[in-house]
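Structure ticket #2291
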Amino acid sequence: MFNAYIAMSPSLWWNDEYLVGELEQVIVDRAPLDRFLYITTCREGNANIITSTNNFIRLLEAQAPPGLDWAYTHMPNDIHPTTSHRSIYDGLELLFKGWRFDSTVKGADAAMMRAHYRRLSQRYSFDCRPL
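Resolution: structure written out below.
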């Protein structure tokens, strides 16, 4: 439904790790996802969250689906209710990494700028233009 997801202490344990099984099927299918996924966990009160997330991350580390841009961060100094702000901020920073065109790069010209914004438009699925 979306092309970018931020999953904070996700309930991947739900329904006998149903989503972990779904990821296994996506890996078998090798269908390109062209999606962004940022997952965080913390010092959880629910050990199932850590176990199921570790299972999910192990699958991604072994064989992430093509086109999936993903990252995982464990936040040991946070607890479940305190991860939201940090997870959203860090996730958005990763999602929009490389957004700004660096005109100070040696040889930067209009063609490089157009190419940069074409890549951004393709990545984010909307027309990106310089301001």
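Closing remark: The CA atoms of residues 96 and 124 lie 9 Å apart.
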